[in-house]
Amino acid sequence: MGGGRKILTIEELADREQGIFLKHPSVVTVAQLDDFDEVIDTRSPSEYAQDHVPDAINCAVLDDEERARVGALYTQVSPFDAKKLGAALIARNIARHIETRFAAHGREWRPLIYCWRGGKRSAAMAHVLREIGWRAAQLEGGYKAYRREVTAQLESHPRRFNYLVVCGATGSAKSRMLERLLERGAQVLDLERLARHRGSVLGNLPDDPQPPQRFFDSMLWNTLRRFDASRPVFVEAESRKIGQLQLPSALLERMREGRCIVVQAPVPERVRFLIAEYRHFLEDPQGLKARLECLTSLYGHEVITRWLTLVEARAWDELVADLLLNHYDPAYRRSTLRNYPDLTDAWILNLDRLSPEAIDTAVTDLLQRAAHELAAT
User: Which of 176, 261, 278, 306 is the most buried (most CB within 10 A)?
Assistant: First the structure.
């Protein structure tokens, strides 16, 4: 019957399954992350919170309390009893994830699964998903292998790029410029956005704590690996630390070899811009005073008392201008001159206003200069 459906023999079915296995291996490396529709972290929520593959979802096969129960049973009773309990808990949790997180996925869905070392937790979930018919794979070596790869690449990968380093005194709208460059299609490494910090004593963002160091590293690695080495990377000048987070030495060294772009704006305009940007501190004077008091060892009680008095009086224009003149500008000059010795050859961008229109015009000028320099090399 020519139009009928062919019935495969057991041998043909085995050959087909083998072909699918070879085309879609069950164990892969970090280099193959982008081959998958979704990355699943089966570790506990606390492990996931410290660091994970960017964009991975957390589908724990044992939560923190369950891990503690199994671990206690292992040491206090026996490994056999611990494995029985662990197997029951893992089976229930995998079933719950299938019924909720994975239920809508069709046959073609291809997830990558990992745990701490690429061991039992990820193996259990990968096995069940493959038995269902999904082309699930397990990350070889698990999170530990991933972390080793990130650490190694952060020592080498930053050196592949040419950096255009945006410098300028506090309040000159450097972050806004990076945002606009990104919107215009430029390659932008926004370190302060990744670090969730503005890089100064008042740099903490409200209700947005900094990520753990390891997850900052992961986000930085994930950003760099997607860049094209034939195009420049725009980045803001930074010192070794942003808040509590450390930048990789290889990145800092390469940034300091980059072309500097100095943004200049009048002090009154910077004052206006900073008052708008740091509105959350104006709404929390006590928090602002606490941050300023951290500078007592640098400036002494007389200066700090003057600043606290201005906070009490809500004299924001005077306070911000005083902080710029006596704290931010001298500190920024010292840091920039120390870290960027080629500053004398910098491109200069003069902005009379820090309005969106003026920033957009400066970005257009900057992109034209960058394209001209790239064409000349």
Answer: 261
What pLDDT does residue 365 have?
93
Q: Which two tokens stand for residue 307?
A: 């600043």
CATH class of 161-376: alpha beta
How many other CB atoms are there within 10 angstroms of residue 90's CB atom?
Answer: 21
- Counts for the chain of helices (H) and strands (E), in that order: 17, 12
CA distances from 71 to 34, 60, 62, 92, 363 (A): 34, 16, 11, 18, 56
225 residue type, one letter: R
What residues act catalytically?
A: 115
- 118's tokens: 């690429």
R_g over Cα of the chain? 27
Tokens, residue 373 = 């320099």
185: left (phi over 0), alpha (psi -120 to 50) or beta: left
d(CA 187, CA 219): 15
Kindly tell me the burial class for residue 100, based on how many C-beta atoms sit within 10 Å of its own C-beta (0-12, 13-18, 19 or more). exposed
Bridge partners for 261 per DSSP: 166, 347
What is the rounded average pLDDT of the residues 70-99?
Answer: 97
* C-beta of residue 243 within 8 angstroms of C-beta of residue 204: yes
User: So what's the pLDDT on residue 338?
Assistant: 85
Q: Where are the domains of the chain?
A: 11-151, 161-376
Q: Per mean pLDDT, which range of 8-12, 21-25, 243-247 is the poorest?
A: 8-12
CATH number for the domain formed by residue range(s) 11-151: 3.40.250.10
Question: What's the half-sphere exposure (Cβ side, CA atoms, 13 Å) at 32?
Answer: 16
pTM metric for this prediction: 0.89
Q: How many angstroms separate the CA atoms of 59 and 94, rounded?
A: 8
